[in-house]
Specification:
two-stranded antiparallel sheet; mainly alpha; 356 residues
Length: 356
């Protein structure tokens, strides 16, 4: 089966499964604290603690406390949530399609969600959808609908006689990405200046607009897949044997597919709605974890969430420091890392028959 060799033969582990999760959690916490300290205005660690917990650490200046509390803290919180959600969604999608090349971005979910988001930005002021629907919910709902439509289109067209053709799925994903990219380009051409400035945010990905209001909206949307996907770990393990075998083990495969697609699209669409397109996190992170500990989703899913949160936090640090005081879009950094990794993944498996 396509790519199944990559699900096997993990590297020898020097730590237990519990130790791995603890190490990743501690590294993620350390990265978050570092991210609160660094930036165009460096703030020493003691003042960061003092800003977060009054009475502890070193008393900060008023502007330092405001920088930590109102700018950096919500930004890092959003990075942790989105990184964890994208990585876990990628691991679930790879398990669903039984292939480590599967990624929400590669199969068109991200681009479909982004196209819908851009359409909502360009036409949002001229189209009244529902009088009862608050304006702040239009963009997330449109993004979710676009990601869902892209996912269903790819899944339906790549399925034949109850079997999902992975090569067809990836090619369809490329087509969806191309169509959505053309649509975004067209909307960019007809957008006014205000909309044009807004939609450039979606093309490259950024955490620069993060605020506590965004965190309140993002938390339930992103926590739902983060909580529910690990509950499907045993079913995903059974699915690695094949759909027929999973069915014989008592797994309702079609129901599982629908649930997984819904949760994956929810995670990706919410991420795109809040931070634009951030590619390759869902591809790179699960593959790294799988190389370390193997394909068991009971560990793969939570470990991927932690490593995804860690890597996106580190990427956010890089985006703020590399061109300081100008901010480099975070999606550019993840693409610079993920692109070469994806090429290496393909080269490693070029001898496998039918990889594409």
């Amino acid at each position: 089966m396509l790519g199944m060799t990559l699900f096997c033969n993990p590297m020898p582990s020097l730590v237990s499964r519990a130790q791995l999760l603890i190490i990743l959690a501690l590294l993620t916490l350390a990265a978050a604290l570092l991210a609160l300290s660094v930036g165009p205005v460096p703030i020493i660690f003691g003042k960061v603690i003092g800003s977060l917990i009054p009475g502890l650490g070193t008393p900060p200046e008023a502007f330092e406390a405001a920088t930590v509390q109102q700018i950096r803290a919500p930004r890092i919180a959003l990075a942790l949530l989105i990184g964890a959600a994208l990585a876990q969604a990628g691991a679930a999608m790879q398990g669903l399609f039984r292939n480590p090349l599967a990624d929400p971005g590669l199969v068109g979910v991200s681009s479909g969600a982004a196209f819908a988001a851009v359409a909502a930005i360009v036409f949002g002021n001229s189209i009244q959808v529902f009088d009862w629907l608050p304006a702040r919910y239009v963009l997330p709902l449109a993004t979710f609908a676009g990601g869902w439509l892209a996912a269903i289109t790819v899944l339906r067209l790549s399925s034949s006689e109850g079997y999902t053709r992975i090569g067809v799925m990836l090619l369809l994903g490329l087509a969806i990405n191309a169509i959505a990219g053309a649509g975004i380009g067209f909307l960019s051409h007809i957008a006014d200046d205000i909309a044009l400035r807004s939609l450039t945010f979606w093309m490259f990905g950024s955490l620069g607009k993060a605020g506590w209001n965004e965190i309140l909206i993002a938390t339930p949307l992103l926590l739902l897949p983060l909580i529910l996907l690990p509950r499907r770990a045993q079913a995903l393990n059974a699915l690695l044997l094949g759909e027929a075998e999973a069915g014989h083990l008592g797994v309702n495969v079609e129901k599982l597919k629908r649930e997984l697609i819904f949760l994956i699209v929810l995670a990706v669409a919410a991420s795109v709605a809040l931070a634009g397109i951030i590619g390759f996190v869902g591809l790179v992170v699960p593959h790294l974890i799988r190389l370390w500990v193997g394909p068991d989703h009971r560990l793969l899913l939570p470990a991927s969430a932690l490593l995804g949160a860690l890597l996106l936090t580190l990427a956010d640090i890089g985006s703020r420091l590399l061109l300081a005081p100008t901010e480099l879009p975070i999606g550019i950094l993840t693409a610079l890392v993920g692109g070469p990794f994806f090429i290496g993944l393909l080269l490693r498996n070029k001898t496998n028959a039918g990889v594409l």
